[in-house]
Design brief:
Blueprint lengths: L3 E2 L4 E7 L3 H14 E2 L3 E6 L7 H9 L6 E5 L5 H12 L4 E6 L2 E2 L2 H13 L3 E8 L23 H12 L3 E4 L6 E5 H7 L11 H11 L3 E12 L3 H4 L3 H26 L15 H5 L6 H4 L14
Parallel strand pairs: 1-3, 2-4, 2-6, 4-5, 8-11
Antiparallel strand pairs: 6-10, 7-11, 8-10, 9-11
Helix pairs in contact: 1-2, 4-5
């Protein structure tokens, strides 16, 4: 697998809350896929592992010079971790990769090419073997072609060869892995801190659309998603507790989402595909000042200069 060279135009952020084995493979995939002076931002979201994740991240510093390492002393969830990346990234293109996403050179190159192909595109995400929205345009059936993780690079290359440059404009995107342009960050800032975890990415997509940008799926960009990896490594009791907490957060943030966008209080959460995104994305009453959420300073958590 030949690496691609990426310069400081690109910032790549990875966050983790424990599960160092999966995070290690995520990092290896990235560094086996890309070299150059791209900015790497690593965020340990208060992992409950006695410093194991932070030590893993520290071990990356000799391998990649242009790295910023943050370690939180309390769990700030997906939204806080991603806001740290968005607030401190310096690249014109900022890419987020969940710690259970395994990228390839073909994935990275296709994401960047699609982002640069059209100034009106604000956020890009690729395809995967599992995206929890269930959409066939986002999910690729890998069949028996990926039997081990060693098969991922070849599969990703084949997907790019078959779908290079193909773009699908979407009404919402799932934020486990995506690329956002600096022009979007300049226009709308970072994630709304009202959302602790869930719905923060979807709110960000709405604000992106209201600011005049498009959400795109790069159908030639495939990254492998190690489904349920951040649950299955736990003992059963802890796994069930984490699942229960997750769903409690989903419903709490759904209530916040309904309040923010004036949806009926009686609306029960029944999946992302039942929401009228076209109505939310095209609200005429929105003004730039209503969209912007300023960056936060997370420098107190920065472990290296």
């Amino acid at each position: 697998m030949k690496r691609i060279t990426l310069d400081s135009e690109l910032s790549i952020g990875i966050t983790a809350h424990g599960n160092t084995a999966v995070t290690q493979h995520c990092l290896n995939c990235l560094l086996d896929s890309a070299d150059g002076d791209f900015e790497l931002i690593l965020v340990d979201d208060c992992s409950p592992d006695n410093g194991k994740t932070t030590r893993l991240f520290r071990s990356i510093l000799p391998r990649h010079r242009n790295t910023k390492l943050f370690s939180f002393n309390r769990n700030l969830e997906y939204s806080g971790s991603l806001n740290c990346i968005l607030s401190h990234a310096t690249g014109e293109l900022v890419t987020f990769i969940s710690n259970d996403i395994y990228v390839t050179p073909n994935y990275l190159s296709e994401m960047i090419d699609v982002a640069k192909s059209d100034d009106s595109i604000g956020i890009v995400r690729g395809t995967s073997n599992f995206v929890d929205n269930g959409k066939s345009t986002h999910n690729i059936d890998i069949g028996s072609r990926i039997k081990t993780l060693a098969d991922v690079p070849k599969f990703s290359a084949d997907v790019q060869d078959a779908n290079r440059g193909r773009i699908l404009i979407e009404d919402y995107l799932t934020g486990d892995a995506f690329l956002v342009k600096r022009s979007v960050i300049d226009a709308i800032g970072t994630l709304d801190p009202a959302f602790y975890g869930y719905f923060a990415d979807h709110d960000y997509g709405i604000r992106t659309c209201r600011a005049g940008f498009k959400l795109a799926v790069a159908q030639g960009a495939f990254a492998f998603h190690h489904r349920a990896a951040n649950f299955d490594y736990l003992p059963e009791v802890q796994r069930q507790q984490k699942l229960q907490t997750r769903w409690a957060k989903v419903h709490e943030n759904w209530a916040r989402f309904k309040m923010k966008y004036g949806l009926p209080v009686s609306s029960l959460y029944d999946g992302m595909n039942t929401i009228d995104w076209s109505l939310l994305n095209n609200a005429e009453a929105s003004h730039a000042k209503d969209l912007y959420v300023p960056a936060e300073d997370y420098s107190e958590y920065l472990l290296n200069p």
